């Protein structure tokens, strides 16, 4: 029996930005596959390029971005689509929950109207959309949804705004949900509630999930697969429990040690500037196991790991 094609397949993605300091290679040789119903985590430190890679899926990068490669969704290359075509997919087949919901919602439009707008795109009447928005607010844990639907984003806390974003995603009934650092800046209790809510949404919709995070605990709760990223490149992929238990790439090994709850072990050195990444392996200046080969040969992904040794 032929294996079904993945829902999302990113091939040889490269993203560069011009700057006064030179060309910034934010994403390089990026390959990722997410099957239908899969929950995958893109894991890495801040600034490694994971959010830029995710935004390229929906053509949300500025015009100055130079993008090469393919982003296949249902075997359709999203990078080839016209703006009107990508808008038909954005917020419908693919929905995204941003790290800072306050900056993504319309400040002069009630949250109920913003949810209703998504529902009306599916052919429902204004009244049906209004009722639907209140139901979705209730389902995502917003109390007194009839009253809250008439309120504006500035009247909500950070945790409640994230619930609104999840309600909008739920209204779209997407096949793929992208969650970009959805628990950042939330207190621990609210973090747990948001994680459980995202779990409920993807399970209810039978949707695939792409989680962007630096938090190993959040990744463990939501995902079965992981792709670890360093300095614009994916360096290791595999089942999450296997990668976390027995990481093979030196960076991922070091990353696991930083989350040792009994002892804090920072990674020595600093990530390289993306205007002039080091030759060979991008991690070799910080790698305790680096050999001469590591500074010469650019490693390729082989059997789920990018390491020349």
UniProtKB/TrEMBL annotation:
Q: What is its main location?
A: membrane
Decide whether keyword Flavoprotein is in the record.
no
Gene Ontology CC entries for this record: plasma membrane
Pfam entry (one):
ABC_tran
Q: Where in the cell is it found?
A: Cell inner membrane
Topology in the lipid bilayer: Peripheral membrane protein
Provide this UniProt record's keywords sorted from A to Z.
ATP-binding, Cell membrane, Membrane, Nucleotide-binding, Transport
GO BP: peptide transport
Name the CDD domains on file. ABC_NikE_OppD_transporters
Under the heading NCBIfam families, the entry gives: oligo_HPY
Q: What is this protein called?
A: Peptide/nickel transport system ATP-binding protein
